[in-house]
């Protein structure tokens, strides 16, 4: 069975799970809205002080904020901020974490000890505090938030990849490549990695959820992406000051944030279930660092 | 046993040392470096020279780190740039509030999580089990700060039963005021932790309930309540202790966020204020104290685990 057919068979099995189906539909909708926000004639920045803190209406579905800006428009552009930060952060974590896990698992010995101890140091502080410390040094910016969230994800990728490599290291096809004189680099990236993708993919989904939450939490604490960039966490932070006048201000963006996180969580659980079913799971060290 | 404890400590030392090096180096990575932090951006050359001599910044960096570490070990974490008060005093003022919040939310989590786990495990795969698993998924997935806002809206804005901002009232001063103030933060954090508790304890209980000794206990006519309470729960709690250790990271992170939601005057809020005012000695102090607490709890959990499970070898 070729890879395409296998992937489509997997997808079909995944879609039989109601939770996964709903999650995928919701995530597709939110990604679509974020990607094509410019076509939706929504303006997240134009102020209208006369109509500040208005209730949800036909003109403003989510109401308006303290500067009269459309909350729905800000939630849609906030989705763009959130999803882009999450994608970038997971990318950083994967690009650093996966090679660490590959080398540590493949060579073992002192390389394993040194690399994994280094990863342990990243876990010496709870994720959100590590991110806050990094932002304290880098200053508050979009790049700082991206790096801070990304670095906290490195340990999970390193550990999951290492566990996969350890399970595959002594398999015949790996030994065969070695016997034919394949270099270690070739063996790690072309032989082992393609066979280790599934648990790493689950990790991508799990970490996407963690990254979105962490970015929002940092913004909520006032140390994330600085305003006026719309971000869900920042909206919750400001909305909290207007709970008596405009309860929907904090509630509606929070609902979008929560549904996004729950969708990624549910998708992650479904993927885990699929892999467990196929006995592809070696050791899924699903770490959740939730603020 | 003592050997095991000592070995765990020696394993943790390098991690602690590197982490402390990182915390110390923070101030050197800041634009302007430590001098800029001390004298500000518009300082004259004389002020810079004076501060350099006064704080010993002309010494080799390793000597500077050694001096910083030596001071930190005896509790001297420097002076806050903003309030000019010793960092340790500021932290000591806030720590009791955070500890009180941690205890209260742990209680909430246990009260919610253990009954949910037992009910789920007794009727695996029933509609009740599915409903309760759904609750755990929600408790874990819903961001703490949004849940906190929803609780404020319900109990403070709509019903007006509880204050929307929580102050710190020590339990021994006024238990009732303390309960009123801590109820919402403790519930917010407790619900989240109960989700972790319920999920892992359920898994552990389901495994135990299939063990032979449970069948034996049932066949000799023991009451189900005694089987669960006296046998199963005790054994199921064993793997659970490790989860408590893993949970601590989330718990401490959750405390910082929860304190922000309820403007509760704990360590987390102190750290956030320090970051926004760029008060680096205070930032370093807060993070160092949290690091030590975190490592100490993990250490205690490890030792506790070895102590209650005689099968663990600590030779």
From TrEMBL, chain A:
Keywords: Cell membrane, Membrane, Transmembrane, Transmembrane helix, Transport. It comes from the Bacteria. Signal peptide: none annotated. It is found in: Cell membrane. GO terms for biological process: transmembrane transport. InterPro entries: BP-dependent_transpt_permease (IPR050366), MetI-like (IPR000515), MetI-like_sf (IPR035906), OppC_N (IPR025966). The chain crosses the membrane at residues 83-107, 119-138, 144-161, 200-226, 246-264. It is a multi-pass membrane protein. Gene3D superfamilies: MetI-like (1.10.3720.10). GO terms for cellular component: plasma membrane. It holds the Pfam family OppC_N. Coiled coil: none annotated. Residues 79-268 form the ABC transmembrane type-1 domain. Belongs to the binding-protein-dependent transport system permease family. PANTHER family: OLIGOPEPTIDE TRANSPORT SYSTEM PERMEASE PROTEIN APPC, PEPTIDE ABC TRANSPORTER PERMEASE PROTEIN. This is ABC transporter permease. The lineage of its organism: Bacteria, Pseudomonadati, Pseudomonadota, Alphaproteobacteria, Hyphomicrobiales.
TrEMBL record, chain B:
It is found in: Cell membrane. Residues 95-301 form the ABC transmembrane type-1 domain. One of its GO terms (cellular component) is plasma membrane. It is a multi-pass membrane protein. The keyword Transcription does not apply. The keyword Ligase does not apply. PROSITE patterns: ABC_TM1 (PS50928). Keywords: Cell membrane, Membrane, Transmembrane, Transmembrane helix, Transport. One of its GO terms (biological process) is transmembrane transport. Gene3D superfamilies: MetI-like (1.10.3720.10). The chain crosses the membrane at residues 12-30, 99-123, 135-162, 182-201, 237-262, 282-308. This is ABC transporter permease. It comes from Microvirga brassicacearum.
